[in-house]
Amino acid sequence: SPPLLQVNDLKKHFPVKSGLFGRKSEFVYAVDGVSFEIARGETLSLVGESGCGKSTVGRAILRLFDITAGQVILDGQRIDDAHPGTMRQMRRRVQVVFQDPFSSLNPRMRVRDILAEPIRNFGLAKSAEDLEVRVTSLMDTVRLPREALNRRPHEFSGGQRQRIGIARALAAEPELIVCDEAVSALDVSVKAQIVNLLQDLQSEFGLALLFISHDLAIVEHMTHRVAVMYLGKIVEIAPRREIFAAPRHPYTRALLSAVPLPEPGAQRNPIILKGDVPSPINPPKGCRFHTRCPLVFDRCRVEEPVLRATGTEQWVACHLEDGAVATSG
Ligand code: SF4
Ligand code: MG
Questions:
Q1: What is the pLDDT of residue 202?
Q2: Within a 10 A sphere around the Cβ of 219, how many other Cβ atoms?
Q3: Are 309 and 325 in contact (CB under 8 A)?
């Protein structure tokens, strides 16, 4: 059977006006040729600095806008150009948990109605009793007291609100949840609780997660694989073990060097990158990372590296991996 999700050469270019009096029309190359798969029950983390395009990938999968090019395929069916009837079911199967549950939960609605809404929208309840059973069991699932069903979002802490956000996502009985910086705004201890909850739910329901995060320390605890993005492209994709123990792309190494080691007092050698991330309106020619790469050489400035397999499951886009086998992408 096909993988749960396939993303093929996805591109999203946003038009912008720039120049004197905004007379120049240009494009932000937010996502510029991204391919990956997610298996059923798998967590793939999409990491990188803000502006690298990781949220745009998540939004493209959620069909929050039309994509510029490429394909998004859920369970063998294209969802980037699906007709409305198919789209409805596709929308049910892919849900989202955003960073800020406060802004994504309607403050005037009681938790009961917040959870009932997707159940009704997707026609999942067979009766009023069934709806009530579903809503109360969702509270149990995310470890919130049932009496909280009658309260409104502002009466909860940040962590509790995120549990409501997760319950709302689960209400649709999804197979994939896009978590866009879902724990980034929470305190460290609350973060760990929500991550543990997501992991429990994953094994309970066989959920796949696309975990979008800039926080590699959190990712290390919960992911199966990691895709590292830089300026709209994936530069490395590999299982967790390889990414954290043997990162190969110079950008992955720099990102990881800033992640604290678990042993107290232990420290990685920090790799400080020079300069800022260049504008995605005019990304550098050749390797997009060449303006900041500590290992840059002539070829990097003219030729774009493609993702190559360096191990069975590790793929790296860097000319230093030239001996490896290139893909068509
Ligand atoms: Fe650095 Fe060149 Fe590799 Fe790009 S291709 S990451 S510039 S060594
Ligand atoms: Mg973002």
A1: 95
A2: 22
A3: yes
Model pLDDT, residue 137: 98
How high is the pLDDT of residue 205? 95
CB 113 within 8 Å of CB 131: no
pLDDT reported for residue 87: 81
Please provide the distance, in angstroms rounded to a whole number, between the alpha carbons at the two ends of the chain: 23
The gap from C-alpha 125 to its chain's centroid, in whole angstroms, comes to: 30
Cβ-Cβ contacts under 8 Å for 260 (sequence gap 6 or more):
217, 267
pLDDT of residue 23: 77
Separation of alpha carbons 209 and 221, rounded Å: 14
- Ranges of the chain with pLDDT below 50: 328-329
Domains of the chain: 5-271 (3.40.50.300)
Ligand 1 pocket (Cβ < 6 Å) reads: 250, 287, 289-290, 293, 295-296, 300, 305, 318-320
Beta strand 43-47 with 208-213: parallel, antiparallel or unpaired?
A: parallel
The neighbouring-strand residues paired with 45 are 211, 226
Q: What is the pLDDT of residue 102?
A: 66
Task: Note the pLDDT of residue 112.
Answer: 97
List beta partners, residue 315. 237, 309
* Nearest ligand to the CA atom of 322: 1
What pLDDT score does 328 carry? 44
pLDDT of residue 329: 41
For 102, the token pair is: 């406060």
Using alpha carbons, select from 197, 215, 177 the residue that is nearest to residue 97. 177
Q: What distance in angstroms lies between residue 55's CA and the mean position of ligand 1's atoms? A: 24
Which tokens is 17 given? 């006006």
Say which residues have a Cβ less than 8 Å from residue 240's Cβ, sequence separation at least 6. 219, 220, 223, 224, 225, 226
Structure tokens at 201: 């739910």
Classify the C-alpha dihedral 138-143-149-155 as positive or negative: negative
| Span from the CA of 150 to the centroid of ligand 1 (angstroms) | 55
